[in-house]
């Protein structure tokens, strides 16, 4: 698995914002960071059977998983915090 570091480096200073900022504000890549094949509309690469996270654009580990574990966990924590604050 050859991945060049420069493809994974942030493109602008705004993409290095703290995790509280919206990670989906950056435009998703058009090609797979692993094999450079074109991604489909769901950010999946069927050549690698991997998919980029809909939120942070990092690989999820499966073409069938839309959101990585870190983003899912962060969203669940925010839901829990909002539910607790509303009670």
Count up the domains. 1
Order of helices and strands: HEEH
Strand content: under 5%
Helix count from the secondary structure assignment: 2
Radius of gyration: 15 Å
Number of strands: 2
Structural class: mainly alpha
Q: Could you walk me through the main structural features you see in this protein, from its secondary elements to its overall organization?
A:
The chain is mostly helical. It has one domain (23-86). The chain has two helices and two strands; from the N terminus they run αββα. The chain has helices at residues 5-8, 69-86; strands at 44-45, 50-51. A two-stranded antiparallel ribbon has the order 1-2. The longest helix has 18 residues, at 69-86. It is elongated and about 50 Å long.
Short structural summary:
By secondary structure, the protein is mainly alpha-helical. The protein contains 2 helices and 2 strands. Strands 1-2 form a two-stranded antiparallel ribbon.
SSE layout and pairing:
Elements: H1 5-8, E1 44-45, E2 50-51, H2 69-86
Antiparallel strand pairs: 1-2
Structural features:
single chain, 87 residues, mainly alpha, two-stranded antiparallel sheet, 2 helices, 2 strands
């Amino acid at each position: 698995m050859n991945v060049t570091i420069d493809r994974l480096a942030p493109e602008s200073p705004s993409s290095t914002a703290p995790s509280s900022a919206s990670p989906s504000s950056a435009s998703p890549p058009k090609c797979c960071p692993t094999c450079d094949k074109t991604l489909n509309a769901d950010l999946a690469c069927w050549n690698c059977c991997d998919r980029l996270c809909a939120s942070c654009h990092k690989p999820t580990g499966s073409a069938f998983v839309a959101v990585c574990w870190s983003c899912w966990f962060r969203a669940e924590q925010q839901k829990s915090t909002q539910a607790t604050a509303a009670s």
